[in-house]
Design brief:
38% helix, binds flavin mononucleotide, 5-stranded parallel sheet, alpha/beta
């Protein structure tokens, strides 16, 4: 059976960010899982203006997009499943994540999403729970499993490796299994999808 395409989205773009370390960790585990072809999408590489298209997505799901978004849109469209790597910013997710979500519609439709969160005390959980609501509106299924790194700076060493990998690795494996189950089911089901 061909492997499903899993896009790992790096959800922070600020200078000095920690997001790529967490994204690399989950991308490596997803590759080891064996069921996925993994694509790491760094939102810092894309042009994602906050000014959205004039026509709402329900009326035009494929609006004209900036040239600097073309590669991003293609890779989101190619994905069967997503892992969003997100910190908590003021008890929610970074604005760049809202921008990439709002610029796209069919790219999320009837696909499955998992999360890896990290931050100070809240470990990305507030971002994750907010994102579940947003993806619900886009007809994307968010899986129950997730990974959370509260006080991530104590959990990763200076090389970006986890000091005690067992528990988070187990949580990641459970999430990846759930993503695989849903992605396989939804990939079959998408061929019969009628959009309304
Ligand atoms: C604007 C901003 C708001 C933040 N708000 C929270 C927060 O509400 N809860 C929390 O635990 N950490 C918060 N933090 C700490 C971040 O989660 C932490 O700095 C993390 O490294 C951010 O991810 P990044 O390095 O990939 O940008 C905030 C950081 C920033 C920059």
């Amino acid at each position: 059976m061909s492997r499903l395409k899993l896009a790992v989205i790096v959800g922070s773009v600020r200078k000095g960010r920690f997001g790529p370390v967490v994204a690399r960790w989950i991308a490596d585990l997803a590759a080891q899982h064996g069921a996925f072809e993994v694509d790491v999408i760094d939102l810092a590489d894309a042009e994602l203006p906050l000014e959205l298209p004039a026509t709402p997505p329900a009326l035009d799901p494929n609006p004209p997009r900036p040239d600097g978004m073309t590669d991003l849109t293609r890779r989101l469209g190619a994905a069967d499943a997503f892992v969003v790597v997100t910190p908590d910013y003021n008890r929610s997710f970074p604005a760049v994540l809202k921008a990439v979500i709002d610029w796209h519609v069919t790219e999320w439709d009837a696909k499955t999403v998992g999360f890896v969160g990290y931050s100070g005390t809240s470990g990305g959980l507030l971002a994750i729970e907010s994102l579940r609501q947003v993806f619900n509106e886009l007809n994307a299924h968010t899986v129950r499993g997730y990974v959370s790194f509260p006080r991530y700076y104590l959990m990763f060493d200076e090389h970006g490796d986890l000091r005690e990998p067992e528990e988070p690795t187990g949580a990641a494996k459970a999430m990846l299994d759930q993503l695989h189950w849903w992605a396989r089911a939804l990939t079959d089901a998408r061929s019969t999808l009628s959009r309304s």
